[in-house]
Design goal:
Blueprint: H1 8-16, E1 17-19, E2 27-28, E3 33-35, H2 40-49, E4 60-63, H3 80-95, E5 99-101, H4 111-117
Parallel strand pairs: 3-4, 4-5
Antiparallel strand pairs: 1-2
């Protein structure tokens, strides 16, 4: 933890350190994990290969993001690769008991936006002090 003026990044980092030792990388507590359809399939496959579950599914939230069309959101996704990625996200979330906001859900949105606005677990406080 720094002793002089701290940047926002310093404050966020310091608030999440659970172990720090000289010469070793800090161990951080990640209090909200946001996932989407593009890169999460590899992570879920890694969990399956290691015979592991999601450590805190209650602190993990998924949203359909990159493959959601900006128009005709009430229609099926036309691109087959995009549609498959959205389908796999939903299946993985069901298998691993993760809250998922699919296309059309009122909470669905851009993963970088929904975290601060709507994906907070009940009673969770992300204010930086």
């Amino acid at each position: 933890m720094s002793t002089g003026p701290r940047t926002l990044s310093d404050k966020l980092w310091d608030a999440h350190v659970v172990h720090s030792a000289p010469g070793e990388p800090d161990v951080l507590f990640i209090d909200l994990h946001l996932i989407h359809e593009v890169t999460s399939p590899q992570a879920f496959d890694g969990l399956r290969l290691a015979d592991r579950g999601v450590r805190r599914p209650d602190l993990t939230v998924a949203t359909a993001d990159h493959n959601v069309p900006t128009t005709d959101i009430d229609k099926p996704v036309a691109d087959p690769v995009s549609a498959k990625q959205l389908e796999v996200l939903a299946a993985n979330c069901e298998e691993f008991a993760i809250t998922c906001y699919p296309m059309g859900d009122p909470n669905q949105g851009i993963v970088h936006i929904i975290g601060p606005s709507s994906a907070q677990p009940a009673g969770h406080d992300h204010r930086v002090r």
